[in-house]
Amino acid sequence: MTESAEFPSDRIVATYELHDTERSPEALAAAIALEQTVEVPQALADASDLPPGVVGEVERIDIGAGAARTVLSYDPAVVKAGGLPALINLVFGNVSMMPGVRLVDVVFPDHVLAGFDGPRHGVAGVRALTGVHGRPLLATALKPRGVPVSRFVEMAGAFARGGGDIVKDDQNLIDDFEAFKDRVKQCADAVDDANQRTGRRCLYLPYATGPLPALTRRFEYAARLGLAGVLASPFIAGLGIARSLARDHDLMLMAHPTFSGGHFVSRREGIDPGLLFGTLLRIAGADVAVFTNVGGRFRFTRDDCASIAARLRAPLGRLPPAWPCPAGGMTFEQLPGLCADYGPDAVLLIGGALIGHGEDLEASTRTYLDVIREASQERLESPAPPREFPFDAQAPRVLAHRPGFEWSRRPSSAYKDARDLARDLAFKGVRRVELVGKFGEGTHADLRYFEVEPGGYSSLERHLHTHIVIGARGRGVLVLGGRRESLSPMDIACIGPLEIHQLRNESNEPFGFFCIVEHDRDRPMPP
Amino acid sequence: MTESAEFPSDRIVATYELHDTERSPEALAAAIALEQTVEVPQALADASDLPPGVVGEVERIDIGAGAARTVLSYDPAVVKAGGLPALINLVFGNVSMMPGVRLVDVVFPDHVLAGFDGPRHGVAGVRALTGVHGRPLLATALKPRGVPVSRFVEMAGAFARGGGDIVKDDQNLIDDFEAFKDRVKQCADAVDDANQRTGRRCLYLPYATGPLPALTRRFEYAARLGLAGVLASPFIAGLGIARSLARDHDLMLMAHPTFSGGHFVSRREGIDPGLLFGTLLRIAGADVAVFTNVGGRFRFTRDDCASIAARLRAPLGRLPPAWPCPAGGMTFEQLPGLCADYGPDAVLLIGGALIGHGEDLEASTRTYLDVIREASQERLESPAPPREFPFDAQAPRVLAHRPGFEWSRRPSSAYKDARDLARDLAFKGVRRVELVGKFGEGTHADLRYFEVEPGGYSSLERHLHTHIVIGARGRGVLVLGGRRESLSPMDIACIGPLEIHQLRNESNEPFGFFCIVEHDRDRPMPP
Question: What residues does CATH 3.20.20.110 cover in chain B?
Fold first, then answer.
């Protein structure tokens, strides 16, 4: 898997197996190089005066006994600008549709890997969350779908009392957001109660799925409840999406393989399972990569599984190692073999067999853990305390207003930073007070107070984000496109996306206003 | 493709081809039924006292000369709750990983289809946007990546002046968001200028990709610039994501097939191309479904292409028909054949061949259109006027404050609606004024004013969304968990996610405050 390492260290190097016998390996390699980068015929590429390196380079073609292989290198600029979606498009976007072409390896320059933060928690982080060292973690799933919620709540509690490490929603447990809030809260409480009794820290991971914005809200809700993470389906949700959401909410991400099959089930096309579940899911931020183990209901080979585990743990820039999670019909009898095959840094996900092991799930969980402990050297440490969401519930919450439009704990600051000044955004005599949004509050909007001196003005600018303005002090003028409107205290205005605007003080007294903007927003542009 | 129509009309009916010879069709069908729904062994499913219909039902098994086929039916409840991601998980989630199982048809009850709005514009909508009737539309792509932005701007303008219908970014054109804003604005202006000259309306569709929130912003930017739509990659971005974003911004969605290959390139597994690009992409909201045409650089058969086009146009609940867009190496010589094969309701996407046709892209575009017109009966109507974003730039923007904390054009309303009252959210003496957010402003936050009578209080509640509160009139008490803080005019407070809170008036004067919330937000829960 590391044959690509001898090629240009400043480019992304991808290796493909070529099973297509209709075209020569040379012709196919040249076609891939064009298809994945400029997507025009060679003659047009030649005529376009392209900077060197933009077209993919065929570095090598190997024609051996089995399938031919070719190694190509690519300019990493698009990946640096567009992240994981751009990476996928670059190494296997259109080529995924070519029969007989299989992606088997990708090697990245360190400066590209530095743009991915990968697993948020990784092996060490999840060890710290659970407090369990020296042995594989035992995980289960809440199922079957269709039983009453109270049954899932009992199961979650029993598994945690029995000493289980991770209990997750089944990926078939899907309900609307308001029902999700209710069910997840009950399951989380049951696990919390069990943890209080055992002194351990079993993690409960709800399943986050759905279209936007429901998907985002499920991640956010899990975070706000203080849960350690979520189960998500990157192959349905989008490989670039789950990571963004987990990072934004500091959640551990357990990646379910649903809908991944097309990418590997043919052995002539698609992506090598080790590369897909080991390298790409790790770059996509999976802390735990669930895959179907050899000997279960699916058909990965022993080599596939070993390759996945190896790639989740191998050096990959500064990305921490992640957990392999063999699953898909594992049984009690397979436990010793699983421990031997994967070693201590694995999550063993056993659903149906554990739930059906006996009447008493708490006792069954203990029985399973006994077998795991026999095969390992368990060391328990105090688990990390429950996550505190950054919002400090004990801090004084009210920012008291003081004479002269000052606020407690919020000093005035410069109106614009140097980066904006460099963009021709001139202004005069503006004071700024950041009130809400920059202090870990977790709000989606920021609140600022601006005060303009007599004769002063804010910069004339436009941007994608919107403003809501509330007059607070004195009288000012809102310039919107070619129009002017007067703004007095308690008057309200809003400024739409890309509208050119400015606030001016043409009076002899200070003009102050509140301005509400989106927390994540684009930078202003000159008109 | 309609064989499933004879099965239960209130369930989702899926047909699979079975190419796996290691298991009998009966065993495989039974395994799929369990895998896709409850994911536990049959014995455990039997013992779980499940409501009828939760487990998938094997409706039929056909063993003929070729591959065996099985028809299964599923309970649609999860899809109604979880949308397209739940649908994908239900019909082909884990089963995608089973060798030798191919999904070839899915039939939906009308009440399930009613939950998907599908293409926003469809065939009729894009006809109205362009004003072109009776002939296929001609589309091209801005490429090759690597040439200066000014070259793309020239190309976009020349294609539009030559009478082309849709010019889109190449899916390899990926840059960071601030560079994207600049490039897209220039290309959009060039097409606008050309449209002014021709009196027609060529559409420019930029490519929206990236992790969140960059992806969302690209859709939003396109909408705010007044563009008709975007090109997106649902197979990378997530099939459920592109639709949500296009709907939120009222954009036409052109779906690029990059990274889709794994889902169909093996003929033993994956999803039938007609079902994938015709039915599923249409449910996923594609107005235009790009696929690789027979005879180009890829290998769809004539039947595959005909099936895609047929499914994009066939009755499917109330979903409008969408456009097939054959692409992938189409040439000038193929134009008459394309017109004959697809008829007038097709978008013919020709990139490299058109760009490389001659020095003068405007003249080449005319030449291509002449051939298309020869094969069709073109009727030009006045195209729809450019999209106006709902924000009305001419309306007075300032809501003037009036004595007694009333505002122009914004009447007071009830504090809570009946749905909240039914949830035990008691309150007393509260007046509400919706100021910003409910009037098509396009802001991400809503601004409301609340006024509490002496002795009154808001409901004691919590929710995932946050509040920012600004004191405006009189003096009140903010109850946060077990704490109380005083709130006077111009004091600021914020209330975090899931914090239990209430605002009370314990004085003898009215207590009024502004409250800022996210525009899209969850409903309050009792403490």
Answer: 122-378
